[in-house]
Amino acid sequence: MTMDQKNALIERICVEARILPVITIGSEEQILPLADALAAGGLRTLEITLRSSHGLTAIRRLREERPDLCIGAGTVLDRRMMDEVEAAGAQFIVTPGSTREILEAGVSCSVPLLPGTSSASDVMEGYALGYRRFKLFPAEICGGIAALQALGGPFADVRFCPTGGVNAANAAQYLALANVMCVGGTWMIDGASLSSGDWAGIQRRTVQALAALG
């Protein structure tokens, strides 16, 4: 797959998702019911992070048992982790930041990489290797909407998935920007519902989150 094809694929994945839920699995028992609740609420593209020891297991199980969902891997920090999530079946990969090693690995990876960026310099390094789609993280700390508007000047063909500080109150404002293809966040997955197994509550908040985007 060429870089142009990877850029087009990650664009399609993100645009169709609108909201990319950033999921940290606390136990293996949460994997299927949480995914089912999000999917029932309208979110069928999921970013499973490697912030817990259950991340790789969740990616494998969801790819095997929920093949109709689009499953990505998040919080991928180095080449070893990239290899692991690719082997587990991840359909896209998201990193919180960028290193030369991981950007070069993404060029040869069989699935698209959405590299993290927090500055114009990060974008330029990825741009030189053919990347045109990035994650802005942590979005609000990096300048939020104003930063994305400013980046749109020198990088007219680049689009972003802002994550970090994006919530129910500002998600629609981010998505209104021409260079934003989707937003990432966790506001539909509150900790109390996750701990208690209130899957109906998570489904309800997912429906509300999408409805608020108009």
TrEMBL record:
Q: Name one Pfam family in it.
A: Aldolase
Q: Which chain regions cross the lipid bilayer?
A: none
Q: Which InterPro entries match?
A: Aldlse_KDPG_KHG (IPR000887), Aldolase_TIM (IPR013785), KDPG/KHG_AS_1 (IPR031337), KDPG/KHG_AS_2 (IPR031338)
Please name the pathway.
Answer: Carbohydrate acid metabolism; 2-dehydro-3-deoxy-D-gluconate degradation; D-glyceraldehyde 3-phosphate and pyruvate from 2-dehydro-3-deoxy-D-gluconate: step 2/2
Keyword set for this entry? Carbohydrate metabolism, Lyase, Schiff base
Q: Which CDD domains match?
A: KDPG_aldolase
Q: Kindly list the GO molecular function terms attached to this UniProt entry.
A: 2-dehydro-3-deoxy-phosphogluconate aldolase activity
Lyase found in the keyword field: yes
Q: What is its EC number?
A: 4.1.2.14
Q: List the catalytic activities from the record.
A: 2-dehydro-3-deoxy-6-phospho-D-gluconate = D-glyceraldehyde 3-phosphate + pyruvate
Protein family membership: Belongs to the KHG/KDPG aldolase family.
How does the record describe its quaternary structure? Homotrimer.
Name of the molecule in the record:
2-dehydro-3-deoxy-phosphogluconate aldolase
Q: Which organism was this protein described from?
A: Stutzerimonas stutzeri
